[in-house]
Amino acid sequence: MTTSTMAPAPSPEAVEALYATGHWLYSQARFTDAQGVFRALVYVAPEDERGWLALGACHEAVDEDDAAFDLYAAAASVTSAPRCEIARARILRRRGDDAEARKALDEVARLAEGHHDHELRGLVEAERGRP
């Protein structure tokens, strides 16, 4: 007989509560506190791209672009994370790697077109238009 060491999946309400708490902390510029909440969200619901995005945004807010970049990249290994790819492209552009940023955005645009996801396509276009 084998026993699983995996915890049961959290309820949707628990996931929403974590996200809401982290979002509130972020909105209060309590980025370090928000990081802890979003880390918990990523741990219990790794398939929820919002946790990865929010945790990365906390790191960006305190000028930790390398950590944010790594989180955005890691999200793709766990779940479909096109919004994380857009965020990763933003950091690539800040680093001066415009060619890689364009390549990343082009890939997300292709995905958006293939899924007829107009919201995602709009996010790509907005990111392309950023200074």
Beta-strand percentage range:
under 5%
Largest sheet: none
What is the distance, rounded to the nearest whole angstrom, between the alpha carbons of the first and last residues?
Answer: 59 Å
Q: What is the overall silhouette?
A: globular
Structural class: mainly alpha
Order of helices and strands: HHHHHHH
Question: Could you explain the architecture of this structure?
Answer:
Helix content is 75%, strand content 0%. The chain has 131 residues and is an all-alpha fold. α2 runs antiparallel to α3.
Q: What's the short story on this structure?
A:
Helices cover 75% and strands 0% of the residues.
Helix and strand topology:
Layout: H1 12-27, H2 31-44, H3 49-61, H4 65-78, H5 82-94, H6 98-114, H7 118-128
Helix pairs in contact: 1-2, 1-3, 2-3, 3-4, 4-5, 5-6, 5-7, 6-7
Descriptive terms for the model:
single chain; 131 residues; mainly alpha
